[in-house]
Amino acid sequence: MKGDDVLVMRFAAQAESRAARSSRPRRSARADGSWLVTLTCNITERTRYYLLSFGPLLEVLEPPDVRTWLLKHAEAVARTYAPTASRPAARPSSRRAR
Predict the structure, then answer these.
(1) Among residues 8, 27, 7, which one has the least CA distance to residue 17?
(2) pTM given for the model
């Protein structure tokens, strides 16, 4: 990937195959099985949503504005699924998701 932004991430061990898909990143294995990945790219809205798709398998370490954006969106997702007094928790459906 080309660009001027430096993205530093820690992938959980379970996400190793996805971490390896990045184009020419610098990767190093950590003692706990996680991967530290540094990538220079253009951080676009599409990039941010892609990072969000990793959920708890990814922690963005830098840049700070991307960390803040991910936190804001992760909290919004959590609020969507949190049960409230006016909306009971949804029961799992017996139907398969398509």
Answers:
(1) 27
(2) 0.74
Alpha helices in 1-98 (DSSP H): 16-19, 45-52, 64-81
pLDDT digits (tens, 9 = 90+) for 67-86: 999 999 999 999 998 987 56
Residue 35 φ/ψ, nearest 5 degrees? -120, 130
> Would you place residue 88 in the very low, low, confident or very high pLDDT band (cuts 50, 70, 90)?
low
User: Tokens standing for 66?
Assistant: 């991307």
Number of residues that this document lists for the chain: 98
Query: Could you tell me the sign of the dihedral formed by the alpha carbons of 49, 63, 5, 58, in that order?
Result: negative
Which residues, including other chains, have CB under 8 Å from residue 30's CB and lie 6 or more apart? 10, 36
Residue 96's pLDDT band (cuts 50, 70, 90) = low
- Classified as helix, coil or strand, 86 is coil
Q: With beta carbons less than 8 A apart as the criterion, state whether 53 and 9 touch.
A: no
